[in-house]
């Protein structure tokens, strides 16, 4: 019992503050992508990263847009409370969003006519954007700031958004990026890769939105056709919540890595 209590305290202490997916989540996504990419793609990534003045590896560079926050409006996508999901590649409530960011930076990265510095910048942003669009509360609602107005207690603390950014990731895969990547890649099958890659960024956004609206996320309450802010705006994260969402978090990280790998191969591979 004392051990269980210590684990509960440790998890709660880790979940208060976070960036999108947390730095750990973004590094996991980009390392999965790098390992799964074709050899010539990895070589192209290394050539670009060698010219960077701040980061030594691709996975480390994927936290770049959060430190400090850059292109703030492109980290997320907001939909209406009664939305049934995206039906086009247009940002529904803004000029720019994470979907348009992925589409635009993919073009820059894949263009041989762009300057090397611009392609490097696109690479660092793109790795981050693909992680963001797979974090369910980055495809959600503006009026509660993607769960930032919903408080959390129990085994995680702070806000619901940061709980999904960090606390659930650490609960699902631990705190060591290398160990997490090893575990996640080992369970990715060729069938999964084929299935997950038969999609486009709009599909990824709709997948995340469906998770955000799911009953098990406790982010909103369905009053057809609207998914409304819960009252009270508070979620208690217990062992059942962690166990229920652990496979979802792991699969979202895996999907993001697999899909990012395909984007890199398309833009940089021979």
Structure description:
- This protein has about 270 residues and is mainly alpha-helical.
- The protein has a single domain, classed as P1 Nuclease (Orthogonal Bundle), CATH 1.10.575.10.
- The protein is about 55% helix and about 5% strand.
- The chain has 11 helices and 7 strands.
- It has a 3-stranded mixed beta sheet. It has a two-stranded parallel sheet with strand order 1-2. Strands 5-6 form a two-stranded antiparallel sheet.
- β3 (about 150-155) and β4 (about 160) form a beta hairpin.
- α2 crosses α8, α5 packs parallel to α11 (about 240-270) and α6 runs antiparallel to α11 (about 240-270).
- The longest helix is centred in the C-terminal third of the chain and has 30 residues, at about 240-270.
- The relative contact order is 0.19.
- Mean pLDDT is about 95; it is low at about 1-20.
Terminal residue distance: 56 Å
Largest sheet: 3 strands, mixed
Helical stretch count?
11
What Rg, in angstroms, do the CA atoms define?
18 Å
What is the strand and helix layout of this fold?
Elements: H1 2-14, H2 22-36, H3 39-50, H4 58-61, E1 77-78, H5 98-110, H6 116-133, E2 139-140, E3 151-154, E4 158-159, H7 160-173, H8 177-186, H9 190-197, H10 201-213, E5 221-223, E6 226-228, E7 234-237, H11 239-268
Parallel strand pairs: 1-2, 3-7
Antiparallel strand pairs: 3-4, 5-6
Helix pairs in contact: 2-6, 2-7, 2-8, 2-11, 3-11, 5-6, 5-11, 6-11, 7-11
């Amino acid at each position: 019992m004392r051990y269980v209590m210590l684990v509960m305290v440790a998890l709660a202490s880790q979940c208060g503050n976070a960036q999108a997916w947390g730095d750990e989540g973004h590094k996991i996504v980009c390392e999965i992508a790098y390992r799964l990419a074709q050899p010539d793609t990895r070589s192209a990534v290394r050539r670009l990263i060698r010219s960077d003045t701040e980061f030594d590896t691709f996975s480390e560079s994927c936290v770049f847009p959060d430190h400090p926050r850059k292109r703030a409006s492109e980290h997320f996508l907001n939909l209406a409370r009664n939305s049934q999901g995206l039906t086009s590649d247009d940002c529904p409530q803004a000029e720019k969003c994470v979907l348009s960011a992925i589409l635009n930076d993919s073009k820059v990265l894949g263009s041989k006519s762009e300057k090397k510095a611009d392609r490097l910048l696109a690479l660092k942003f793109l790795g981050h954007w693909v992680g963001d669009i797979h974090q369910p509360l980055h495809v959600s609602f503006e009026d509660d700031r993607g769960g930032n107005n919903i408080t959390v207690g129990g085994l995680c603390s702070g806000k619901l958004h940061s709980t999904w950014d960090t606390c659930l990731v650490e609960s699902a895969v631990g705190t060591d990026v290398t160990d997490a990547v090893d575990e996640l890649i080992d369970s990715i099958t060729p069938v999964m890769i084929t299935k997950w890659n038969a999609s486009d960024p709009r599909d990824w956004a709709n997948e995340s939105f469906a998770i955000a609206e799911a009953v098990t996320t406790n982010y909103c309450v369905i009053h057809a056709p609207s998914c409304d802010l819960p009252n009270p705006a508070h979620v208690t994260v217990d062992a059942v919540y962690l166990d229920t969402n652990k496979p979802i978090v792991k699969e979202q990280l895996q999907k993001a890595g697999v899909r990012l790998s395909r984007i890199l191969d398309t833009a940089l591979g021979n």
